[in-house]
Design brief:
226 residues, mainly alpha, 9 helices
């Protein structure tokens, strides 16, 4: 019985995430959610009570899923990890219905659940701290400017990828078109990241040059944090 209840709850969460991502808070229908989940309104109210509680649960789940996708960052080269961080954020904004739903709900109906930025922004700060400490960034670039640039880049990448996601499930030839769009987005992202690295880093654009300490400020500690 408990296993069945857990499956029903998870199915409702997934259905709610898709519904909130596609239609926002006001446009989301509890009836469509239970249709998607192949269950009943009674089951939904039993597990969540209200639409608002369900929205907050979806946002909490999105934070947890995002955190799991980023928890392995920090061990490798910080500039490459920064690229990985922003690339993962962009892909999640396209592929993960919970992340897409949370981003829309943050705009539609801010609540008690902290925004997604509180999950990934500390990771970005930490990687930039490491890059500064290793003298990997160009002299004269302030920590605040670097953080602001990459934060805007991450938000822009998430918004651009999320905006290309159609509503409803695409099948057949549309799946091929979706794959083609993903490849083009990845190619565009590679070009954008090359430009960013060219402006931020000492040496080339591959994120591996400039480790000799010839430029860039030392470790900034708290200064790099806004």
């Amino acid at each position: 019985m408990q296993e069945r209840a857990a499956r029903t709850r998870q199915a409702l969460m997934e259905a709610a995430a898709e519904e909130f991502a596609e239609r926002g808070y006001e446009g989301a229908s509890l009836q469509r959610m239970v249709w998607r989940a192949a269950t009943s309104i009674g089951a939904l109210t039993f597990h969540f009570g209200t639409k608002n509680v369900l929205a907050q649960e979806v946002r909490t789940a999105a934070r947890a899923r995002l955190g799991c996708c980023l928890e392995d960052l920090g061990a490798a080269d910080p500039l490459r990890e920064l690229r990985t961080l922003i690339g993962r954020l962009a892909r999640l904004a396209y592929e993960d219905p919970f992340v897409r739903a949370a981003r829309r709900l943050e705009t539609d109906r801010p609540g008690e659940v902290p925004p997604l930025t509180e999950t990934w922004l500390p990771v970005l700060h930490g990687l930039l701290d490491r890059a500064y400490g290793a003298h990997r960034l160009r002299p004269g670039i302030s920590p605040g400017d670097a953080v602001a640039l990459l934060e805007h880049l991450a938000e822009g990448a998430m918004a651009a990828h999320g905006a290309t996601r159609g509503t409803g499930h695409e099948a057949g030839p549309a799946e091929g078109r979706g794959a083609g769009r993903a490849e083009r987005r990845d190619a565009d992202w590679d070009s954008v990241w090359d430009v960013v690295l060219h402006g931020l880093t000492v040496g080339g654009t591959d994120g591996t040059s400039g480790t000799s300490g010839t430029g860039g400020p030392g470790r900034t500690g708290g200064t790099a944090r806004m």
